Amino acid sequence: ALYSNGLYDTADELYASAVYEGYLPWPVIEQKNKASQLKIDLHGMNRALAHSAVRVALQQEIQATSWQINGTVLENDAIHKLDKDVIIVTGKGKRSAQHLRPVIRPEVQRMLQEEFYPPLGTSSIPGNMGALAIPVSDVKLWLKHQKEQKGIRLLAVAGILKNISSGNRLRQLLTLNLNDSTGEDNTDSNEE
């Protein structure tokens, strides 16, 4: 219901909670000796679950690429170690209503093009129609953009908090309240 009503963020939160609580499997396939490649398996998922699984897994990558110590943002090497295309296993559609007519694959392709900025392109993997490859260059560009946007939002919040903690906002409010209670007119008196 959340997915079909476009409430993707709420659906993602619910999905992440279900994974955390052990009700759903984490879609990222851990691969020995292939730490530089992200592989997401959507086998057995419906469109709504697959949608959230991809979004949550890629958002998790953003969080894994940086952290803070004493307010200083340090880069993790994860973004630099990523040197292979991201693989999304969608399946061939064997369990779809119309046998071998994939449902997940076109949904994932649509989502990556329409809901991600910059858009993430996909290509078929030769010999494996049940999987998509996202070019590593697209993923790195997307991760960089997401981190920049996160930084802009954090700077805006820091500015607000600085204004509050420095007392500037409190002084402004007190001045407004004092002027209102004394009946002083704060408008420009030079109007003709």
From TrEMBL:
The record, for InterPro entries, names: Smr_dom (IPR002625), Smr_dom_sf (IPR036063)
Span of the signal peptide: none
Q: Which organism is it from?
A: Eucampia antarctica
Output the lineage of the source organism: Eukaryota, Sar, Stramenopiles, Ochrophyta, Bacillariophyta
Q: Name one Pfam family in it.
A: Smr
Q: Which residues form the Smr domain?
A: 40-140
- Recorded protein name is Smr domain-containing protein
